[in-house]
Amino acid sequence: MQDGGRKILGNIGNGREGLLESHTQNWKEEQPYIYWMTSVEGIGSRTIEKLVNHAGSPRKVYGLKLSDMLEIIPKSKAEALLMAKREGDILEKYNALKQKGIQFISIYHPYYPKRLKNIPDAPFGIYVEGKLPEEDIPSIAVIGARQCSDYGRFMAQRCGKELALEGVNVISGMAKGIDGISQRAALEAGGKTYAVLGCGTDICYPSENRNVYIKAKENGAVISEYPPGTKPVSRLFPRRNRIISGLADIVLIVEAREKSGTLITADMALEQGKEVYVIPGRITDCLSQGCLRLIKQGAGIFTNIGELLEETGLRNRLPGKSGAICLKTGRNGGGLEGRGGNENGGGQEKYQGKKEKKILDILDFYPKNIDRLMQETGMEYRELICALSRLCMEEKAVKVGAGQFKKG
């Protein structure tokens, strides 16, 4: 790795430059024929590239006979393409997408994301519900374990929220666990998120993230390289990960097992020349093993959002933004709950009671018992319990067992 181990500057060209230049001017004419090829199961970007190189354009591929196709692709794929061609008028099917509220953006389209165009094996077309991210707005992918810990949930919520408050787009896969949690937090904070699916955009998977699915279309987009109606099957998800990392400037990993799909995304990000940061965890936690392995390989260590934006230069791309947002309350640059400034912790919400403020400064994600809290705050039992009760009602603290409390 280079640049402190966080970035690999490899050759990200995919040999399509000449092809793209020659067809960009005629993108409207070529769109339906790219749609025809991408809508056929088993026809990926490499197959499409071979066919277009051979025929000269997507439209000319549509006119190829079986014998012509067999010179460059397997018989099964050639027959699948011709079968789809016989099933109905391709222009009619293409236009029907708009009636469903789905845009098809081919690699020749002027709105096709530049970040995505430059990655190896870029999809020849993507299906979009919503609006694609603006090119000049920084984007960070927040990904991690589906079966995450309470700590992972806590950090995913905080990172999603703080990125949104900074004006950074949150990219993820809307999966159960870290992905969906970070995206939900970004939306609740008024930010934008982009969900890259391993199925058609007309299918919400997993169903538990339907609220994210619906709101992402209003404040961001739902994106897939798979045509509408494609069911979520396991073999499709690894390939979609290259789109998640491709749309992002940086990939932030919250939690990951030693062998997981999250690490596949990290590898793809490095191949694309993207920086990878991880949130370190305890060495005894299985959900930290993937992150610790990446740290050993040179990945960046995440400490807080402000430092991440400063270190990577992304803050310079956020007009009117300045000052670090720290994940620890009471430190320079603000806290988790807001963006204002005050001498008692910047963005932390103001509490009328000094007792509640004192408790919040001491509470951690890991539970603390009453005896320890009495010792650290210097408060009597009764006043401590009353203050904790108020904080629990405001969801700033959580009771997690007999006499155990943690930050909410």
Task: Reconstruct the topology from this structure.
Blueprint: H1 17-24, H2 27-38, H3 45-55, H4 58-62, H5 66-69, H6 75-86, H7 90-99, E1 103-106, H8 114-117, E2 125-130, E3 139-143, H9 150-166, E4 169-172, H10 178-188, E5 193-196, H11 210-218, E6 220-224, H12 237-247, E7 250-253, H13 261-271, E8 275-278, H14 289-296, E9 300-301, H15 305-312, H16 354-362, E10 368-369, H17 370-377, H18 381-393, E11 397-399, E12 404-407
Helix pairs in contact: 2-7, 9-10, 10-11, 12-13
Commentary on this structure:
It is a single chain. The chain is an alpha/beta fold and 408 residues long. It has 3 domains: 17-96, DNA polymerase, domain 1 (Orthogonal Bundle); 139-317, Rossmann fold; 354-407, Arc Repressor Mutant, subunit A (Orthogonal Bundle). It has 18 helices and 12 strands. The protein has helices at residues 17-24, 27-38, 45-55, 58-62, 66-69, 75-86, 90-99, 114-117, 150-166, 178-188, 210-218, 237-247, 261-271, 289-296, 305-312, 354-362, 370-377, 381-393; strands at 103-106, 125-130, 139-143, 169-172, 193-196, 220-224, 250-253, 275-278, 300-301, 368-369, 397-399, 404-407. The strands form 2 sheets. Strands 1-2-6-5-4-3-7-8-9 form a 9-stranded mixed beta sheet, sandwiched between helices. It has a 3-stranded antiparallel beta sheet with strand order 10-12-11. Helix 2 (27-38) packs across helix 7 (90-99). The longest helix has 17 residues, at 150-166. The two termini are 38 Å apart. The relative contact order is 0.09. Mean pLDDT is 84; it is low at 1-15 and 322-352.
